[in-house]
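User: Just a sanity check before I run the rest of the batch. Below are the structure tokens for the first item. I only need the designed sequence back.
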């Protein structure tokens, strides 16, 4: 790297000297050439930037469809159909495997030596599948894969886990609908419906996603908007706690490990300095477990996280605390809503945001399916409510 840097500096110096001598003797011609060259370069940069922005707008829909009706037709098994009745009187039918429930205990049988391997199709098409994420920030880490799950129907679940990597996730679950060959996608090949494959037989990376909505001390609910560099759901409404569980090959995963990660991610955007370890959480409630059909049945745990900050205090910290934007799924906006300020009309989610300046504004947006399932869990359990 140092050698390349020196070479670049040397080339720039030599070019500058040569350009200086030439322009000294042939200034008029040089000026005209410079203006023409500058205009050409500027035009090229502008066209390239516009093309990049347009490609970002279509990137997510090329990787995973967000078409509710299409997915419902493919996955017609009765147990996959979900309906959420929002408090504003509207409703939405979508496909998701899972049941809202207060989980009293999460047991984990963890094998940190076992490593997931992509299928031969995924591996041989790695470059094509990976390049589907051109506009997303990418960093490889070890992830916690769910190999199987057992529900004892007594408000306790057992997760059987191993390890995978985030890059494995990018070439499997997160590119289900990307046409890596003519008319061929991972969904059509491995998950054509009408039901989703049981986890123990699934060929996907299936890392455990943690999804949670924040409730403030004055009974507002916090939702986020994903940035344009997110690996999925760009510019979509998402749960403020939304991350893939990571753990090294020497770490042991249990319920306490998961809870600590929830605390860490909740406080991550609220730290005043990098050494600030203040815990703003007063209660963490596991409210369900599910599998996202849009991402090949990727498993999720759903939470409600109650904090001891008001919505004004939360928003002030969110927007004014230093934070590294170079994260896998960075959320760049936060919204504070009342439970009856959220609903679904004509293909868009209507949401009234109460900001920290006392101003209310209604937004029409698209939302990630995991957020909708998170809200359904809260509504069905009576935890998403307005307390005037």
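Assistant: Here's the designed sequence for the first item:
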């Amino acid at each position: 790297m140092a050698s390349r840097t020196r070479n670049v500096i040397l080339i720039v110096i030599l070019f500058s000297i040569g350009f200086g001598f030439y322009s000294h003797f042939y200034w008029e011609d040089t000026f005209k050439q410079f203006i023409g060259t500058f205009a050409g370069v500027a035009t090229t940069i502008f066209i390239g930037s516009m093309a990049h922005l347009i490609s970002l707008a279509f990137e997510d829909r090329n990787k995973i469809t967000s078409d509710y009706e299409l997915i419902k037709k493919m996955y017609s098994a009765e147990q996959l159909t979900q309906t959420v009745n929002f408090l504003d009187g509207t409703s939405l039918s979508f496909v998701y495997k899972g049941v809202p429930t207060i989980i009293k205990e999460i047991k984990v049988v963890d094998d940190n030596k076992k490593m997931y391997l992509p299928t031969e199709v995924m591996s041989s098409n790695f470059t094509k599948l990976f390049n589907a994420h051109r506009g997303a920030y990418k960093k490889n880490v070890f992830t916690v894969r769910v190999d199987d799950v057992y529900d004892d129907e007594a408000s306790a679940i057992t997760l059987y886990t191993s390890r995978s990597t985030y890059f494995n996730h990018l070439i499997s679950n997160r590119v289900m609908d990307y046409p890596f060959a003519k008319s061929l996608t991972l969904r059509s090949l491995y998950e054509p419906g009408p039901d989703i494959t049981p986890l123990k037989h699934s060929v996907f990376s299936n890392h455990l996603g943690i999804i949670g909505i924040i409730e403030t001390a004055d009974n507002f609910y916090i939702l986020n908007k994903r940035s344009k560099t997110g690996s999925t759901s760009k510019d979509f409404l998402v749960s403020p706690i939304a991350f893939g569980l990571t753990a090294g090959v020497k770490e042991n995963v249990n319920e306490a490990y998961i809870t600590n990660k929830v605390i860490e991610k909740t406080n991550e955007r609220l730290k005043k300095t990098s050494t600030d370890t203040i815990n703003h959480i007063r209660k963490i409630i596991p409210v369900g477990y599910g599998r996202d059909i849009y991402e090949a049945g990727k498993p999720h745990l759903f939470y409600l996280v109650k904090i001891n900050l008001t919505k004004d205090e939360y928003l002030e910290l969110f927007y004014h605390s230093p934070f590294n934007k170079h994260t896998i799924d960075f959320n760049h906006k936060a919204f504070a809503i009342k439970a009856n300020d959220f609903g679904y009309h004509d293909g868009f989610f209507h949401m009234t945001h109460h900001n920290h300046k006392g101003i209310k504004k209604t937004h029409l947006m698209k939302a990630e399916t995991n957020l909708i399932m998170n809200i359904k869990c809260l509504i069905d359990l009576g935890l998403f409510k307005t307390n005037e």
